[in-house]
Amino acid sequence: MSDPAPEVAVKPTGETRGRNPHGSFIWYELLTTDPDAAAIFYGNVVGWRTRSAGQAGVDYRLLSIDGTDIGGLMKSEEGMPPPVWLGYIGVDDVDAAATTIKEAGGAIHVPPTDIPNVGRFAMVGDPQGVVFYIMRGNMDQASTAFAGMTPGHCRWNELVTTDQAAALDFYIDQFSWEKGDAMPMGEAGDYRFINHHGEMIGAMMNRMDAKQRPMWNFYFGVRDIDAAVEAVRASDGTITFGPQEIPGGEYAVNAIDPQGAAFGLVGPRT
Asked: Is the CB of residue 9 less than 8 Å from the CB of residue 115?
């Protein structure tokens, strides 16, 4: 992957200090071919409001729910990934984290870069090729972009990888995550839960077939899963799996937005 132009480095307001220890998911970002259409789609499906981040010369938009910013969206330029959701992992030191990621077999796609009045970030990849961001915010306010039980926030972080065991070791080493319990999935192997500071934040699994692209898949909370499914279909998105009941009695869905970005939804039936 080639580095995007410097002007795309206008990023989120999520923070890593305060209540966000090293290794926390602090922000979510959609790279898309059509920001206007994506804003309407996710507004219909998740209920997000979209506004400009106010950065001169850069069309970076903030996604919010009930007055809280949880992510952003921007146009995917040449050299950037195809339409995709990417996560930001907060770190204590971006430069040090980027160095250890590369030493562990990962990649640096955008080197550590300062964002005025926001923080310092880098776009990196794990040894299996999955792209994500690392970031250190400037302020002490904690990010609540990931909130396990809150509609409109990310509620689950799921890694689909080519080598679950190696990926698990990598993220444990880099971000002090903890190996959780596993749910057997037959020939597909285990669905391995991951914890951070005693909180279950998601899971890792091997991809189901060789054509599936390794990636982080993020599940966003909705208030009514059936209404959200209908909104996906009515807004030209595609449901690829579900709704399926999950432990606790809620339902999960996998979907693809009209521009081709995969995402998940989770919520109750009301």
From this structure: yes
Q: Which of 147, 204, 153, 154 is nearest to 178 (CA)?
A: 204
- On whether the CB atoms of residues 88 and 134 are closer than 8 A, the answer is yes
Kindly tell me if the per-residue pLDDT of 182 is higher than 90.
Answer: no
Burial class, 153, CB count within 10 angstroms (exposed 0-12 / middle 13-18 / buried 19+) = buried
The per-residue pLDDT for range 220-233, each reduced to its tens digit, is 999 999 999 999 99
Q: Which residue is listed with tokens 């409109």?
A: 152
Number of helices (H) and strands (E), helices first, in the chain?
A: 4, 16
Note the pLDDT tens digit of each residue in 169-181: 999 999 999 999 9
Pairing of strands 25-32, 68-75: parallel
Structural domains in the chain plus CATH codes? 6-137 (3.10.180.10), 154-267 (3.10.180.10)
C-alpha count within 13 angstroms, C-beta hemisphere, residue 266: 22
- Using DSSP's 3-state secondary structure scheme, residue 55 falls into coil
Closest CA to 159 of 213, 82, 228, 101: 213
